Amino acid sequence: MQEQHRDPLIEEALRWFGVLKDPKASDDDRRAFSLWLKEKPEHETAWRNAQRVWMRVGKIGPAFANSPQATVVIPEPSTVVMKRPPPLRADPALRPITLHRPPPRRRRGLLMAAVAAVCVAAPAGALLWRPGLLADHATAIGERRTVTLADGSSVELAGASSISVDFAPAVRRVVLREGEAFFKVAVDADRPFVVEADAMRVRALGTSFDVKLGDGSVTIAVSEQSVEVTIRGSPPVVVDSGRQVRADRGSLGDVREADLERVEAWRQDRLAFHETPLGDVVADLQRYRTGLIVLTGARLGDIPVSAAFETGQADAAIDTLAATLPIRIRRFTPLLVVLSPRT
């Protein structure tokens, strides 16, 4: 079920906001914006309101620190706080969710306040706080690209992903700043190859493996040979070919069998999920569409999902989720999609 909420003037103002915040904005862009601003009194009013809202919600910038498309959870029924969801757990039973809700007028006020904040903050926040701005190599939303490093190793980056590279005489160091990457490491016995992602450190030599940086989690899946994984405060763990390990909130889990075909599906422009919490599915879809997908209530993110989608059809994937799960869609602008429990 979908509800369409489109305001061409709001969408136009949002586009200008994104254009002007882009470091590549040209003089022609600024002149065109000036003409647009003077064209109608409504344009100037809309722009002033956008700036005023941006100043009020400026403090939410850190919510986008780890990803320009971070999932936003709107808690109910009290205050609206921009934050990331708690650790997600798959629920084996797919059933409707009952939430205690405020009166309709209050609930709509909360939602619209969040919509206003997200709509204005999302385009600018993505540019101002995106970790990729500090990276050596980064991909745009929906882009997949392979980078060859100086030692002959290769790194395939998923959509909206970025890395920093620091090669020294004693060690080859790569930091995954956001997203997901597949590494094929060239052998160099004198210089170990180290990948860092959040608190996790992966040491490899002549190895192929996938590293995925999530919201407070890091997952390593090995497709060839083995890697040594360490995390602050824990002893090192060896992960062999066909195995994976995940760290959640700084705690390293058990090494277990990996479904490499599903893990690496993104390398064939597909996303595959099996009993994956909806919150994690949404986080993956975020890397393949512009804007934000909002979940109204953390419990919604726990619904297990088993499905496969084409990365180039993220919006169609959202429609499929709404058709098969007890959720509904509301599209307020192309930049904001809200998922709520179906009642």
Can you tell me about this structure?
- The chain is of the alpha+beta class and about 350 residues long.
- About 25% of the residues lie in helices and about 30% in strands.
- The protein is built from seven helices and 22 strands.
- The strands form four sheets. Strands 4, 5, 8, 11, 12, 15, 16 and 17 form an eight-stranded antiparallel sheet that branches.
- The longest helix has 26 residues, at about 105-130.
- The relative contact order is 0.14.
Looking at this protein, list some descriptive labels.
Jelly Rolls; 8-stranded antiparallel β-sheet; single chain; globular; 7-stranded mixed β-sheet; 27% helix; alpha+beta; 32% strand; 343 residues; Phage tail protein beta-alpha-beta fold; disordered N terminus
Helix content: 25-40%
Number of helices: 7
Radius of gyration: 21 Å
State the name of the first-level CATH class of the largest domain: Alpha Beta
Main sheet: strands, sense, barrel: 8 strands, antiparallel
Overall average residue pLDDT: 75
Ordered list of secondary-structure elements with their pairings:
Layout: E1 2-4, H1 8-21, H2 27-39, H3 41-57, E2 72-73, H4 104-129, E3 137-138, E4 145-148, E5 154-157, E6 162-167, E7 172-178, E8 180-184, E9 193-197, E10 200-204, E11 208-213, E12 217-224, E13 226-231, E14 237-240, E15 243-248, E16 251-252, E17 256-257, H5 260-263, E18 270-277, H6 278-286, E19 292-295, E20 304-310, H7 314-324, E21 327-333, E22 336-341
Helix pairs in contact: 1-3, 1-4, 2-3, 3-4
